[in-house]
Amino acid sequence: METELYNRKIASLIREKTKLERELRSLFQTKACGRKTGITKEMIERAREYPIDQLLETGGKKIVHCPFHDNRDPSGSIKWNRLHCFVCDKTWGPIDLAMERDGLSFVEALERLT
């Protein structure tokens, strides 16, 4: 049973990674074809460095409530500019969090964070 859960989680993460890689490839190919996307490597780096606690209501704390479910007690931890929820068993960076929480595309998340 536990192995099945791990396999499902791994498959889900692989699908998500593949989707993001495909979107990134598409962005850079579009730029290479002469159409400007307005996305640069510097923008991606700035968005990755965006303070994640500014996307969440942390009150300066490193233990927070996860924005994806209601819990009475905080279930998320902020460390190295990443949010990890122990209930969801998932970790988000600033870009991932903006995309998932606000329903943004990769490009929209970058534009919001830079």
Describe the protein's architecture and organization:
The protein has 114 residues and is an alpha+beta fold. The chain folds into two domains: 1-37; 40-114, Alpha-Beta Complex (DNA Primase, Chain A), CATH 3.90.580.10. It is 50% helix and 11% strand. It is built from four helices and four strands. The protein has helices spanning 2-32, 41-49, 94-102, 106-113; strands at residues 63-64, 76-79, 82-85, 90-92. The protein has a four-stranded antiparallel sheet with strand order 1-2-3-4. Strand 3 and strand 4 (90-92) form a beta hairpin. Helix 2 crosses helix 4 (106-113). The radius of gyration is 16 Å and the shape is flat. The model has no long low-confidence stretch (mean pLDDT 85).
Q: Spans of 5+ residues with little confidence (pLDDT < 50)?
A: none
Strand content: 5-15%
Structurally, the number of domains stands at 2
Given the structure, what is the number of helices?
A: 4
Give the name of the CATH architecture of the largest domain.
Alpha-Beta Complex
The third-level CATH topology of the largest domain is: DNA Primase, Chain A
- Gyration radius, in Å: 16 Å
Identify the overall geometry: flat
- Give the number of DSSP strands: 4
Could you describe the largest sheet, including whether it forms a barrel?
Answer: 4 strands, antiparallel
Instruction: Give the full name of the CATH homologous superfamily of the largest domain.
Output: Zinc finger, CHC2-typedomain
Bin the helical content.
40-55%
* N to C succession of SSEs: HHEEEEHH
CATH class of the largest domain: Alpha Beta
Walk across the major sheet and give the strand order.
Answer: 1-2-3-4
Mean pLDDT: 85
